[in-house]
Every structure is written in C-alpha cells, then in structure tokens.
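Example record used in the benchmark description.
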Amino acid sequence: MMIAAVGSFALMDAAMKHLGQLHGPMQVTFLRGIASLPIVLLVLGISRRLKDIRPIRWPLHLLRGLLSIGLLWSFVFAVRELSLADAYTLYLSAPLLITALSVPFLGERVSWRRWCAISVGLVGVIVMLRPTAAGMVTLGGLGAFMAAVFYALSAISISVLSRTDTTASMVFWTMAVIAVVAGLASITTWTPVRLEEGGWILGLGIAGAAGQHFITQAFRLAPASVVAPFEYTALLWGIALDWFGWSVLPGSRMLAGGSLIVASGLYLMWHSREPAAATR
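Model output (structure tokens):
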C-alpha cells in the first residue's frame, strides 16, 4: 500500500510542479483538493460507502487537513525552485521524523537496528544535499524540509485517527479541508486557469485521491515506524520523472547518497519481517 501511495504522490507532484510554474502554491494546493473531492465521492457512491465519511473525532480531521495544506504548500514551493529529485532529498527525512515521533505519540518501540539503518539512510540524504552553508538554507530546501515535518505529523495523525474513524472519512475530510481553506487563502493571489490545464488538474485529482487512499490504508495496517521507510522509493520516482519530464539527470553525489538510502530502506523492509523486531 505504501509503495502504491508513493508512486501516486510522485505523479501528483509532477503535475503540481507543472502547475506551480503557472499559479501560486496555495492555488495549486486548492486545485489538488478540489480535483480529488469528486473522485472520492464517486468511488464512495459506487461502493455505497457514503455513510462511512461520518467523522467521529472531527478536531483531528481538521488538524490533519491543516497539516496537509502546510505539506502541499511547502512542497509546491520547493518543486518550483528545485528538481523533483532534489526536493525529495530533504523530504526523505520524513521517515526518520515519523520513527522518532512514533515513540512518544504512539508508544511504539523501535529497535536499535532500525535506528542504525535509518541513520544510514539519513547520511545518504546529507550526501545528496551537498551540505554547504549556502545549500542548506535555500528557500527551496527549507520548503522541502518543512514539507517533511508536516508529512511526519500528518502520518502520526493517521495512526491515531484510524483507531476510531474509517479510511473513507479520513480521505474525504482531508480533501474537504484542503479545498475550503486553501481556496479561501488563494483568493487574493488567484490567477486564471486555462482550458488546456484541465488534463493536468484531472491527473492531479486522480493521483492525489489514489495516494490518499493508499497511504491511509498503509498506516492503518502497520505501525508507523514500519511503513515509513517505504517512502524512500520516492527517490527513484523523482529521478525517473525528472528525466522523462524535464530531461534532468542526477549527479554522482545523488547516486551515491541514493544508494545509501535505498540500501537502508531495503534493510528496514527485511528487518520488519522478523517477529523479534516488532515495534508494538
């Protein structure tokens, strides 16, 4: 489920990167929410599960929606300044943040082996960042890191909400909050949407709705510290989409750092299968 979510969100990010060159980050955030809502409602209507959207812990739904707005705004800003792969390098710090937050917020136990593997993955991110004083404080890099922080907090909220609320309610209300709040916030900076952008917006909605469903299911089915490392596959998606969409190829530092990230992610996937390593 998490691999499917990452792939869906990577396609969504490519569409947001394109639309972000034409509109402001908050307007793109609104377009992402409003494009997904009809698709979510259609799927729920066909499956006769509209009653499942009834919220039980509505303050947490509101909080998750606001966190998602922060995530989307930050990431749209980041990919306007950076390539997808470069933005993902900082964004890939999210699994480490999720693992750290799962201990105090969810009461999960994380083995020292997993901490070591995730630390190796973080070293890979640092290698790819080319850590210089100038490179670490760019606005694009700061936007990508803030997106990682919002993502980690949102992932924790999914784990908490899934104890009482359905997947349908979490997906629907997240999209609803994004559409309403981001729509109101983008009024003062709104720019006209052209007809030829319709295909991009439709793709944005489909990919976003699919990603929300898959990621919600992923965090429902497994502990956050087990699911989070699968986010590392976003690096491969970013490199591929940069090449196909913008003819940008990664440099040697990105390949070296990416190898560390992928290796640590694969180890975490393997290690999570061992009964003794359960993070409950």
